[in-house]
Amino acid sequence: MEKKKLHLFMENCGRQIKNRTLLRFLMHLVESKQFHEVKLYFPVRGNSLTPCDQNFGLIKRVTIESR
Description:
Layout: E1 5-9, H1 20-31, E2 37-41, H2 51-65
Parallel strand pairs: 1-2
């Protein structure tokens, strides 16, 4: 049987994502052998700008300049 790995890319917001319920669920996935390994990736603060974030910054700048 092929070993499955689950890679999750998540926001770095403690209240919303890194909570006990989610972590227990991920542990259950490994314990029940649905996945061999689960890895969580959190973006490094300040280095996670996506094109969408850049667009919001542009909209904000244009809005401020047009006042």
